[in-house]
Amino acid sequence: MSNLGTMDIFKTLPAAKKAENANCKKCGCAGCMMFAVKLAKNEADIASCPYAPEELVQKLTLSRKVQQETVEIKGSKRILTIGGEKVMYRHEKTFINPPPLLVALDFKANDFEEKLKRLSSFRVENIGEEFTIEGVLLKNILKNEADIEKEENAKALIEKYGLNLIPNEALKALQQVEDGPFYETLSKLVDIRGKAIIERNPEYSKPVYLHLEGDNVEILCAKASAYICKYASCLLFDTFDEALFTTLYILRQNIYTDPEMPLQVESKVYEFNNPDENAHVFLTTNFALSYFAVANEISNLQKGSYLVITPSEGMSVLTAWSAQKITAEIASRVVSDNSVLNKVKNKKLIIPGLLADLKEELEVALPGWEVIPGTIEAYKIPEFVRRLEKQG
């Protein structure tokens, strides 16, 4: 059940039904509509209305139950916020807290410090966001005297490499789901999420975590990808692999973005490889995926380049063109307003191939500039530039 809105509440009250006690003001509000507004905002108590139907009382009571608890796990370097989800599907609103990817290490293993080095050096950047290892746990802690000193030395090494040590007991605040047969595990995750979000059953309100054992990277990737989608709150691995974690972080990033807030970058002129008067000048929208796709290609060109980013409300090239968020006027204004482009001697503006229809309008709006429709796909930019340079 979703939270009740003002009109959902109002239609059950006397004023909506034109009943005898409509707008009686016994609730302390000016009328039933104002009372409904306050109830929807959780600023009033349903008990204030002596005429509220029992059905509404029950629905409000259910809608105000916590769906999934928010748990904070305090590590040695940072606090991880887990759970707190309120919807079954991302498009309903958004998912809130991305599931942390944790690594469990055997501190008595001969390659323990080598693994710490790999973990501490792991960095991956995608669409302007950088990911590192979010937490490390120690496993095989037997608590005998022989191990106490080794454990303390292990913790000191973790501190030395700047990693976030998670106390093992911290996971007790979560509900563990055993990683059994894949379909059974996935079905259990979906069932728990449904009982928490839809039924608001307090027995299922704890965020869930899975401990993925084994070292087959392909299998781990397939299972973890599915569990991130539906509906693990935290994943613990015995195996660390750079390619595996890179894949999972990028997948997670895509799932845990707000569907109502497109990823976008600042509208301005970006410089690559120390551009000079002979630099290439490219243009695209401020949709983050468009920016990083183009930026990745032009950053590998031998010659320096400028990249002009238009204010397109985070829309892709074709979407922005269709919605009139990128026009000759908008694009020319961004180019004209940036004095850094004044030093470019060879004034050629390379626009996305999908904007070829803007060529003539742009050349009128930008006297002295030659506008060149480029490629549709970013990966073809290097070859396009090579052909362009041969033509002089």
Order of helices and strands: HHHHEEEHEEEHEHEHEHEEHEHHEHEH
- Biggest sheet: strand arrangement: 6-3-9-8-7
Domain module tally: 3
Number of strands: 14
Q: Spans with pLDDT under 50 lasting ≥5 residues?
A: none
Distance between the termini: 65 Å
Portion in beta strands: 15-25%
C-alpha geometry: flat
Given this structure, which CATH class of the largest domain is correct?
Answer: Alpha Beta
Helix content: 25-40%
Features:
single chain, about 400 residues, alpha/beta, 3-methyladenine DNA Glycosylase II, Chain A, domain 3, TIM Barrel, Rossmann fold, five-stranded parallel beta sheet, five-stranded mixed beta sheet, 14 helices, about 15% strand, flat
Topology record:
Layout: H1 6-10, H2 14-17, H3 32-40, H4 54-63, E1 70-74, E2 79-83, E3 101-106, H5 112-121, E4 124-126, E5 129-131, E6 135-139, H6 145-160, E7 175-176, H7 182-197, E8 208-212, H8 217-229, E9 234-237, H9 242-255, E10 269-272, E11 280-285, H10 288-298, E12 305-310, H11 317-322, H12 328-337, E13 348-351, H13 359-365, E14 370-373, H14 381-391
Parallel strand pairs: 3-6, 3-9, 7-8, 8-9, 11-12, 11-13, 13-14
Antiparallel strand pairs: 1-2, 4-5, 10-12
Helix pairs in contact: 8-9, 12-13
